[in-house]
Design a protein that fits this description.
- It is rod-shaped and about 95 Å long.
- It is of the alpha+beta class and 145 residues long.
Length: 145
């Protein structure tokens, strides 16, 4: 069997060693410097990791199948990303969790803005009324004598 030398530390490798492209690494260097891609099961250098906090992804798999959530930066499969097409955060790719949170925020913001507009309109209408002469205000309808 041909003697192999680890490209990182220079030690003689017993057995097969671990291959990353054309590089061969010893057990210690492979466990310290490499990871296995969760999509293709190929070994790659951790420095080239495109994954997130809970999965390793090689660049090829990431570029072909993944995008990043614009809010939390987690890697998400392109076919599982939510693209916001209108309103708040238009154009963002989001994971399901962030999409749900932003949707709630957009609804709350839109509702608050609409309510503020309604209140301003009501106040401007009321400013023209002689409130001393107003007999009742019921369900948003003003009745005057």
């Amino acid at each position: 069997m041909e003697e192999r030398i680890c490209v990182h530390c220079g030690c003689v490798i017993e057995g097969e060693g671990y291959w990353v492209g054309s590089d061969v690494l010893c057990d210690d260097c492979a466990s310290e410097l490499t990871a296995i891609c969760c999509d293709c099961d190929e070994r790659f250098y951790v420095a080239d990791d495109c994954g997130d906090s809970w999965r390793f992804l090689c660049r090829s798999c990431y570029e072909g199948n993944y995008t990043r959530c614009e809010r939390c930066c987690e890697a998400i499969r392109c076919d599982e990303a939510f693209r916001v097409s209108e309103g708040c955060y238009e154009g963002d790719d989001l994971c399901e969790s962030c999409y749900t949170q932003r949707l709630r925020l957009c609804i709350a913001t839109t509702t608050t803005t609409a309510m503020q507009s309604i209140m301003r309109t009501l106040l401007s209408l009321l400013s023209g009324w002689d409130l001393q002469r107003t007999t009742s205000v019921t369900c948003g309808i003003l009745d005057t004598p």
